What we know:
24% of the residues lie in helices and 21% in strands. It contains eleven helices and 14 strands. It has helices at 7-12, 33-52, 72-75, 115-118, 122-130, 133-139, 146-153, 174-177, 203-209, 292-299, 313-326, and strands spanning 18-19, 59-71, 86-99, 105-110, 141-142, 162-164, 198-202, 233-236, 240-243, 246-250, 259-265, 268-273, 339-341, 343-346. The strands form two sheets. Strands 2, 3, 4, 5, 6, 7, 8 and 14 form an eight-stranded mixed β-sheet that branches. The chain has a six-stranded mixed β-sheet with strand order 1-9-10-11-12-13, with helices on one face. Residues 12-35, 344-375 are annotated as: Disordered. Keywords: Hydrolase, Metal-binding, Zinc.
Amino acid sequence: MHFPWGTGEVEDLPTVGTAVDTLPDPSRSDDPPGVRLRTARARARAFREEFALTGAPDTITTCDLVTLPYPTRFGLFRASRAIAPFLSITNRMLVIRWRESDGRPRVLLFEPSDVELGRSTPYFHDLRRKTPRGLERLVVTEHGTVLGHLARLGIRPADVDYLMFDHLHTQDLRRWVGTRAHQDDLGARPRAAFPHAKVIVQRDELAAMADLHPLQRPWYQPAAYRDVLPEAFAPIDGSVVLGPGVAVVKTPGHVFGNQSLVVNTSTGIWVSSENAIAAEALTPEHSRLPGVAGWARQWQQEAVLNANTVETTADQYNSLVLEKTLADRSQRDPRFLQFFPSSELTPARTNPGTTPTFTHGHITHGPTTHGVKPA
């Protein structure tokens, strides 16, 4: 797959945010993984202190998009003893609003997945092909669309400034940012639903997508990016602060250019990514999921990875430790952290042995808007 722009053009694209000096890019380190682990923990502690001083966004609202099956062996890497081959995860979008120091309003959509086009991801396309339609209707639930949720929140798509994903697995952005050519599968040249939004992405992920490794190919839709305009992207290197209480932290491992959303709220600091699919994956000693606590004790592991990709497993583990060091304890149950999986483990009667011990379900911060209830 080839992007329609060269490496030099990517380098020339405008970036966003203020670089975080206390969190240098871990993927640039030549240290062995064990040293990187200690460094990640220490630097996360330092960043916690400075990040809390940046303030907080005005509001955060959670919007459910879809609940779907996902292999247990991926979501609870090596730890689960559940008999169910699949568990359920719920994909959610976070809508974050703040004001710049000059009063300008900002809107960030975190994980605004186009669920319909996401079905063409090779892995999920193959899974759907093998699944009877009656069973699919039983195990897949669509809760709402990105544009539908925004309409209920009273947010115009033209007022959205940033789109951000922890990584671009399964994502097809053509309807969100438009294309420069007719798309045969869509029957049109899509106009950008978000005409002023920039996609915040790590340069490392754009570079990886330009020449995918076989381990990566089942999870990306590279053809969907062939005609997307390069100026739709705002590539960053490492970690940045976007606004008061809103940061992007580079957390490589799940993919080379993985990144996490970090937000400061009335209940403290939250971290969101898909490096893990449950809050208990960061404190597995408190998990009641079959096998998880015992596995963590036996192998002296302090985190359970979401490991559908294994390009850089040690880096993913180190990133989870960084995330758990950043996050505050849950006020509902202090055994668990305010780690909000962008795809959260969800109980389902069809999946015995995969009912989570604890779920967040939503992040809510600031006044409730337009009567929209969090999921």
